[in-house]
Amino acid sequence: MKKEVRRAVIAGNWKMNKTPSEAAEAVAKTAELTKGMNGCDVVLCVPFVDIAAAVDAARGTDVKIGAENVHFKESGAYTGEVSAKMLTECGVEYVIVGHSERRQYFAETDETVNLRAKAALSAGLKVILCLGEVLEQRQSGITSEVVSMQTKLDLAGISAEEMKNVIIAYEPVWAIGTGLTATPEQAEEVCALIRETLSGMYGKDVAEATTIQYGGSMNDGNAADLLSKVNVDGGLIGGASLVPEKFLKIVEAAQA
Ligand code: PGA
What we know:
This protein is an alpha/beta fold. It has a single domain, classed as Alpha-Beta Barrel (TIM Barrel), CATH 3.20.20.70. The chain has helices at residues 20-34, 51-58, 84-89, 100-105, 110-122, 135-139, 143-154, 184-202, 204-209, 223-227, 244-253; strands at 9-13, 41-46, 63-67, 94-97, 126-131, 166-170, 212-215, 234-237. It is globular. The site of 2-phosphoglycolic acid (PGA) has 13 residues, from strand 8.
């Protein structure tokens, strides 16, 4: 990656795993293991109910805490949802929006993902925006069309200034939780395409400064190769982020 212009970010996405006490333990362990590794930012995105324990355990360390989703309204009758202000008041700095599991299982669309991203940015959160093609789209040869369209729709109305707080996670849906990883070349090709799309929307400087992660079965064995690519600026890691010792290996790979 281009370290002169952008920051590597290694973020864990715990999904629906770990109770608050387990979260406290894992955050503390991750912070201890990754201490002093300043070559990348280290973020753990945790379930809502784990936030208080995670923020507490991360206090005074280099680990930053994120949430896994956010609603776009400030308050109101939206049972089960959480607002951006609730998250910031709890000490959350990052939030994932548009994860494929939210799109697949909870009917989120580019429109609602865009609204969530805008609400999070307005509240001062850093957004990790996930996008990526499903297997049929890749097999039909329309990956670039799908990914550039998602990039444009999900970022609609977000300013160049706000892009300083946006990280994009390219996550081919066929690689998530499947053990199938995109090859470094496939990841590089699509991350470069996302950067080109950003260049068209915001100009070259913003595009060059935006952190673009790869996500989808990234692990201690494949992280170094993926992260060696110039347009791959970090990772969004599911399964391998649950075990601090495994996550450490990925953080180490990002120091190079
Ligand atoms: P995985 O998940 O690393 O378990 O494939 C990645 C993600 O869903 O962000």
